[in-house]
């Protein structure tokens, strides 16, 4: 073993011509790129066309043999599930899933129909669905006639985007007394029924199998030998388990969190023709006559074959605000960049005449809906798409539209050196007005990205209205500094009523997080104070968003994760992941598999943006922050040019982990980092070890502690494809017996790794106990009124 001064070391990370070429996002791989034991954490099914329930959650009345249709049942047993009037059964799936429900019918009599109800949360599993709309507390269950033996599937328009619980029951008489609505083309099987036209015409029902026999006497019944779901999400992936990235660590909880984010993003990626759950808003354009409380998924929200959306159950449309979190999360897990490009295209294609970007994609955009922050999130999504995909041709084609949009935001930076927002719309938070810190910090980040984008495509115009983008950044940084409240060690929401001295003073989670993650702060002391004070506000269930009373927002908290990393406090980031996202997996009413849109400060699964708790989305892409943050923060892999032709690696194991490893691939190949605490068998000393692998013909810098390895292109044969470094983490002084040529740096490469073993004596620090949040019920009611103003366009009468 030999010690080295790292600042002087040049190393080649150039592999042979036979090195891994990297995945093509136009044709994603069928097999996972990093196979290993961590694959057990992947939530995607092995066969997405036939997902079976795993247990019976509840049953009532006239049902028997339902265990025969479960995943682990013996198929050759010959036992079928029999259901007749009054019978009800609720099936539970292993994960939150989505798709079309199908039944294999063995026998039927007397024109039976089943009533189907769906729920993501166990709290809302039963005769009524959870909710996609906001006109009533619950969606209507679906009445579905069983016409034939053989396979009976609901039509494509009745894809339910996310559910973990499927309730199937049969009415006690011939009429749908449960308040449901009929599947298109189906009707109640009795003379007294008044026929009505189908409530939408795009969806048709197809049946397989032979005709049933009519029996005019007796009650209806159905014998079913199989129930399954055909999942239509993530259409770009031929195999949903073929991940292009992975993460593994000493924390099994953190591992589950990473994969839950990836699975959430997969479920939220759709066939563009299967979107649009805002059925009342859709009526402005498709003129549907659906009854109040009905639901469907047949609105076209983008072009192409796949598109990433906000959520799996709702709203199933493109919301640019999600892109800052979702795009890098997709890039490091499944590399479905095509779905991202289609989402960006639909926003650019609907850009307003003045250069503003729409608040969201179709069906929105026709009424001038706009948000200053979501406008900027589109530009951030553009940067991340180009960074990970390397699609410079696409950027060149969009550059004029991009710079027009950038000019809209720059034009709102006034004499106070802050962005003066013109729209109150954001992520449902309160008080988006005036000279806002969040919007100003986002623009500060966008300007940095814009300078990089211009460089990558050799564009010289890096100014707007005669002012260089770098100069606008400096002005914004100066303006943001005026919002710092020394007495609180945080930034205020704006210069007006919500300022440091204003009557409605607010120190927002989103704005303070954005100052940190964009590094818009002017002193490290300020950054340290903000990070520390954000942490002090945590409760038992995570980080509250004080700018939106009563709310725990995984969206704003995803920004907080990145903010702690930007402030140089990765310990706080990992601690918050385990606290908040751990609760989001294992807390009461959660899915144990996907990330929820939001919840109350007391931990209940009600997101106060909506008056009905059942409307909450339990698979929302904006809540998947840890999936990208763990790659960037713990493993420290940062691409600094398209596809990672240049990069920076700065691993931070944190006090919460004894090892972490993972990586992802772009078209250039694999980026992989492992960090581990080790112990010497010979001396008993403790060290930290890192392994790094990068694609051929790339270059970058490794930052580790206070030292740096400057990596250049030299000869492969000198070192090899993978590179390992060590450093002591105990307080002892190096001795001559511990290495030849030792020096004060105590970082070395080694060919004696056999003497080092994993440090099994490491003990995870004790987690701080925190109190639950307390709901302010008056403000909760006030929030419902504000949330109702989110959509600017006219809503048709119910």
TrEMBL record:
Keywords assigned by UniProt, alphabetized: Signal
Single Gene Ontology BP annotation: carbohydrate metabolic process
Keyword Signal: yes
A Pfam family per the record: Bac_rhamnosid6H
Gene Ontology molecular functions: catalytic activity
PANTHER family: ALPHA-L-RHAMNOSIDASE SIX-HAIRPIN GLYCOSIDASE DOMAIN-CONTAINING PROTEIN, C, PUTATIVE (AFU_ORTHOLOGUE AFUA_3G02880)-RELATED
Name of the protein this chain belongs to: Alpha-L-rhamnosidase six-hairpin glycosidase domain-containing protein
């Amino acid at each position: 073993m030999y010690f080295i001064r790292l600042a002087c070391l040049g190393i080649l990370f150039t592999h042979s011509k036979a090195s891994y070429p990297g995945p093509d996002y136009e044709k994603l791989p069928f097999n996972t790129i990093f196979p290993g034991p961590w694959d057990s954490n992947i939530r995607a099914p092995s066969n997405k066309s036939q997902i079976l329930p795993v247990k019976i959650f509840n049953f009532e009345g006239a049902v028997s043999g339902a265990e025969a249709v479960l995943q682990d049942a013996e198929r050759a047993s010959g036992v079928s599930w029999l259901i007749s009037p009054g019978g009800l059964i609720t099936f539970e799936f292993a994960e939150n899933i989505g798709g079309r429900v199908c039944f294999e019918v063995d026998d039927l009599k007397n024109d039976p129909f089943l009533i189907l109800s769906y729920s993501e949360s166990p709290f809302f599993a039963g005769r009524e669905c959870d909710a996609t709309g906001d006109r009533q507390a619950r969606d209507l269950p679906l009445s579905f006639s069983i016409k034939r033996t053989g396979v009976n599937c609901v039509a494509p328009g009745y894809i339910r985007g996310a559910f973990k619980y499927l309730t199937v029951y049969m009415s006690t008489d011939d009429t749908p007394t449960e308040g449901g609505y009929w599947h298109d083309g189906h009707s109640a099987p009795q003379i007294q029924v008044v026929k009505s036209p189908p409530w939408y015409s795009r969806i048709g029902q197809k049946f397989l199998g032979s005709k049933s026999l009519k029996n005019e006497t007796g009650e209806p019944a159905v014998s079913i030998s199989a129930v399954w779901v055909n999942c239509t999400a993530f259409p770009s992936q031929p195999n949903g388990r073929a991940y292009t990235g992975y993460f593994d660590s000493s924390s099994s909880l953190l591992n589950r969190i990473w994969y839950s984010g990836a699975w959430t993003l997969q479920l939220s990626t759709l066939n563009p023709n299967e979107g649009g759950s805002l059925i009342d808003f859709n009526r402005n354009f498709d003129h549907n006559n659906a009854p109040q409380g009905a639901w469907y998924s047949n609105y076209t929200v983008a072009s192409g074959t796949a598109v990433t959306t906000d959520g799996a159950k709702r709203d199933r449309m493109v919301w640019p605000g999600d892109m800052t979190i979702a795009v890098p999360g997709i890039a490091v897990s499944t590399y479905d960049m095509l779905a991202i490009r289609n989402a960006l295209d639909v926003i650019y294609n609907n850009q307003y005449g003045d250069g503003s970007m729409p608040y969201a994609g179709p069906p929105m955009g026709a009424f001038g809906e706009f948000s200053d922050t979501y406008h900027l999130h589109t530009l951030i999504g553009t940067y991340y798409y180009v960074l990970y995909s390397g699609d410079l041709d696409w950027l060149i084609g969009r550059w004029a539209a991009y710079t027009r949009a950038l000019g809209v935001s720059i034009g709102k930076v006034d004499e106070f050196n802050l962005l003066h927002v013109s729209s109150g719309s954001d992520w449902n938070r309160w008080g988006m007005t005036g000279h806002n810190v969040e919007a100003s910090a986002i623009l500060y980040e966008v300007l940095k990205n814009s300078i990089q984008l211009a460089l990558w495509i050799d564009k010289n115009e890096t100014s707007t209205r005669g002012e260089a983008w770098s100069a606008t950044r400096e002005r914004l940084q100066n303006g943001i500094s005026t919002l710092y409240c020394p007495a609180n060690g945080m930034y205020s929401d704006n210069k007006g009523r919500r300022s440091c001295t204003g009557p409605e003073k607010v120190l927002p989670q989103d704005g303070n997080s954005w100052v940190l993650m964009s590094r818009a702060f002017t002193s490290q002391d300020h950054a340290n104070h903000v990070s520390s004070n954000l942490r002090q506000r945590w409760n038992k269930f995570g980080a509250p968003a004080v700018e939106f009373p009563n709310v725990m927002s995984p969206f704003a908290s995803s920004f907080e994760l990145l903010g702690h990393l930007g402030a140089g406090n990765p310990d706080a980031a990992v601690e918050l992941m385990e606290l908040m996202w751990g609760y989001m997996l294992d807390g009461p009413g959660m899915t144990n598999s996907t990330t929820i849109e939001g919840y109350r400060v007391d931990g209940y699964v009600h997101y106060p943006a909506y008056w009905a708790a059942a409307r909450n989305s339990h698979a929302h892409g904006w809540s998947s922050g840890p999936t990208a943050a763990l790659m960037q923060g713990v493993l420290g892999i940062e691409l600094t040019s398209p596809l990672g032709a240049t990069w920076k690696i700065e691993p931070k194991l944190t006090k919460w982990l004894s090892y972490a490893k993972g990586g992802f691939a772009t078209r250039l190949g694999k980026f992989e980092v492992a960090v581990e605490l080790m112990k010497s068998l010979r001396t008993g000393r403790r060290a930290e070890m890192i392994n790094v692998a990068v694609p051929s013909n790339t270059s970058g810098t490794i930052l580790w502690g206070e030292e740096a390895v400057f990596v250049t292109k030299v000869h492969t044969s000198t070192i090899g494809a993978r590179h390992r470094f060590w450093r002591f983490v105990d307080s002892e002084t190096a001795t001559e017996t511990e290495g030849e040529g030792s020096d004060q740096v105590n970082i070395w490469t080694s060919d004696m790794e056999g003497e080092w073993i994993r440090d099994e004596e490491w003990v995870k620090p004790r987690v701080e106990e925190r109190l639950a949040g307390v709901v302010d019920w008056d403000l909760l009611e006030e929030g419902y009124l504000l949330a109702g103003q989110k959509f600017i366009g006219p809503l048709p009468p119910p």
